[in-house]
Amino acid sequence: MARHKSRHTFARTDRLAETIRAIVATEIERLDDDRLELVTVTGVQVDGSYATARVFYSALLAEQEGRLDDVADALEDLRWPIQKAVNRAVRAKRTPQIDFALDEVLNEALRIDDIVEGRGDTSS
Question: pTM for this one?
Fold first, then answer.
């Protein structure tokens, strides 16, 4: 009998990225740092060599309040405890080293929506 390939096959890097996203989101909530209030982990990209995992986050409230630097500092301060949680949970010979990056996609989408609705400034 021939094997049927599923339409929903995912690359190992995609599965690993989703696992890391869930772990990081849980750890951010568990560590309960006030600087990370309403910070959302939006996605993770794992490179093909599994050496690094870029964790993208959104912090709209912090951005509105001018606290994006505080959020970045908090994530860097907590990077090692979060990395340890990832290392414990991921069953692999090599665990990617995480780093954090602000996800600009949502901000850009909101800016475009404002422009379309005639509420925004088009100079950005």
Answer: 0.79
